[in-house]
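Researcher: Good morning. I'm working through a list of sequences from a screen, and I'd like to move beyond sequence-only analysis. For each chain I'm collecting a predicted structure so we can compare shapes side by side. This is the next one on the list. No need for commentary yet; just the structure.
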Amino acid sequence: MDTGSLISNPDGAPDRPGEAGMRAEVFLQAMARMGYAALNIGLGDLPVGVEALRKLAARHHIPLISTNILHTATQTPVFTPLLVRKVGLLRIGVFGLMSRDLSLGAKGQPFFADAGLSVSPPADAAAAAVAALKEQHCDMIVLLSQLTRKELDDVMQKVPGIDLALGSTGQEMSSYLSTIGTGHFADAFQKGKYIGQVTVNLRANRQHYYAADARSAAAAERSALSVQVMGFQRDLDAGPGPEGPLKPEQRANIERMLALTRAKLQQATERLEAEQGPPADASTLEFAFTPLGTDIRDDAEIDKSVKDFQEKFPKAAGGH
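Model: Good morning. Structure tokens for this chain:
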């Protein structure tokens, strides 16, 4: 599964006529070859156009999901809001959320408004999705997130029943499952450079999923938060930089982030001190975070599509 904004231009340059559509064709073709089960829609995917994106996804049999992107006029979902897949012994329910902060994707923002789309509050959409998936007797509920970390924390705290949240717009590249609310979260970073793999170990107790190595995960989370606290404090204590002293709004934002991170650090410390490991009969989750190697042989069909795209739309000067 992909958590969203897959099709946005990695160079950050404006798309040339036809570029977004051809890029989407290549990406969806590759996803089909890899057996993807779903693409959550993010702001970066929308410049392709809703109908064009639907047609491309249908051609390659890739389900597009979004729970809180709505037609403004009717308040009905633009894409499939929920997905249920049987994987082994599990019925896994999947839903996807996008941030209400449309400034996160400047290229998608004008299209979003012009197309008559709106974004419903993430926590409200999540509560309705979880209730609907439980009615379908799902054993596990997974959120594909294109939320800011603040929005994600809010959803996970307010909506019990989300077992696993994947991805966010924070690009945190976490190598462990962190605990938020009653569930877990991991972010596999960006630009397709890494694969995040979750392994579910099923045992008698399937009412709640524990991190398989919860104590190590809690220690890693506490360590990462400690580094963040020190970084924010260092920014506040530093003298004037090349651009002069911090502006009042910059200082206020750093102070706010410092307070939030300190609160998270306190919570992580308390979890670590209380962590006894999962019960013997508990079902557990393992998270592996793997960088993609350059020695993997390219798929010939996908490689041709990529080269055709590169020939028609060469990289802009200074692009990545």
